[in-house]
Amino acid sequence: MASTVRGELRLACGIIVGHGAVELLMRRAGLRGAMGRPKWRRIKPEQIAKDLVDRQFTRTGPNQLWVTDITEHPTREGKVYCAVVLDAYSVEWSAGPSTPHPPQHW
Fold it and tell me: How far apart are CA 9 and CA 22, in angstroms?
């Protein structure tokens, strides 16, 4: 973490300071870097959702099968949840504000 602070001081603020000095000042101030990403945990078999449609996603019309997924992303400010709900028949999708078609540059 001291190297990151030192780099920021040097590049953004133009302050030239040694690595050891930054470490010492951070230690005296009780400052430490944020911990790294948490390690992946193996999901227990009883926590895995059952396949209720037997992998048969093809439908002949709308509103016959809806599928969903949700993902949790930890951040420094708390957890963020990303969820999607799709009609298996429809090929249209939207992200964020409702739009009829995705932007052409995607």
Answer: 10
Report the interhelical angle of 2-13 vs 19-29 (nearest 10°): 110
Please give the span between the terminal C-alpha atoms of the chain, in angstroms, as a whole number.
Answer: 36
pTM above 0.90, yes or no: no
- The two tokens of residue 104 are 């052409």
Alpha-carbon distance 78 to 48, whole Å?
24
Helix (H) or strand (E) run with residue 57 in it: none
Question: What are the Cα distances from residue 97, in Å, to 43, 85, 90, 93, 94?
Answer: 33, 14, 18, 11, 7
Q: How far apart are CA 72 and CA 76, in angstroms?
A: 13
Check pLDDT > 70 for residue 98: no
Is the pLDDT assigned to residue 68 strictly greater than 50?
yes
